[in-house]
Prior knowledge:
The protein has helices at residues 8-16, 31-36, 41-62, 64-71, 89-98, 194-215, 217-224, 241-247, and strands at residues 72-79, 86-87, 105-115, 121-133, 138-150, 158-166, 225-233, 236-239, 255-265, 271-281, 286-297, 303-312. By secondary structure, it is of the alpha+beta class. The longest helix is centred in the N-terminal third of the chain and has 22 residues, at 41-62.
Amino acid sequence: MRVPFVLCAVIAALAACDNPTDPAASPTLSSEASLRAHIDLREERAALASAADALSEAIAANGVATALTAALADDAVFLSPRTNMVVGKTAIAAFLTSDPIAPSALSWTTIKSDVSNDASQGYTWTQGSVTIDIGGGPLTLPGMALIYWKREGAGDWQVAAINISSGGPQTLPIPDGFDTPDTKHRRNFPNTDAAAQAQQLLAVDGAFSDASLERTLGVAFEAFAAPDGIAVGGGQFVYGPAAIGEAFAATPDDHVSWVPRFSGAAESGDLGFTVGDASFILPDVSFYTKYLTIWQKQDNGDWRFVADFGSSRPAP
């Protein structure tokens, strides 16, 4: 959630730009689908979870700065409490090495993973512990991370965006329908362009923010959440649109908005992310956060978020 932690017509119009094929259409009509038919997404999800857990082991052995930097994509985005987002592998390495509010220790276990239809991108939810200075010196706390991953071909998974914060532990197992999917394949969206999809996600996230201002935060979150969407409130997972909308209910006097800054999407056009800055201007208090949101294209072509997690940032 964008908390330290709908314009359905707008989203429908944005989705129409994709001109998706009929969901009932045979995937064999697409050469891309034929190329992806050999990919077993169950195996790819398991492999991504293993890669995430291996990164935790590397951090334990070599330290946060060394191990996490080695796993970053060159254009990675890093989010952790009490600071602005850090962009780019070089800047993140400097932050992790020298900034006193950077996390000094991390440990996690993957509790959910999913991948794009072409297995080139994916995301993981993890939980464990984080040692971080939240204002009174370093503390080791229950911690969570939402990580968006990408890779080239059969290369190693790299971190494209990561949000680390205190929170959890979650009650396990994750409820059915919200845990790691067990489907072998997913709906194919042919002839998509990754750059165009990434730009579309910025527009969708912007419409999401507009809906928050026009219809209140909870209504917007309920409208933009996927049926299997997970947000975080009070350090705990909130599952599904109705519960998310209730958890983040707000009044018309609560002005909550955000600006998406960065995005990315898989070539398969079904999975992507946005990162941005949020502002909470409430009647009695104002505060500011940043967020990582994971989006999955639904069978009807609409983008809906499947994971959303925020952390604090300084006032602008």
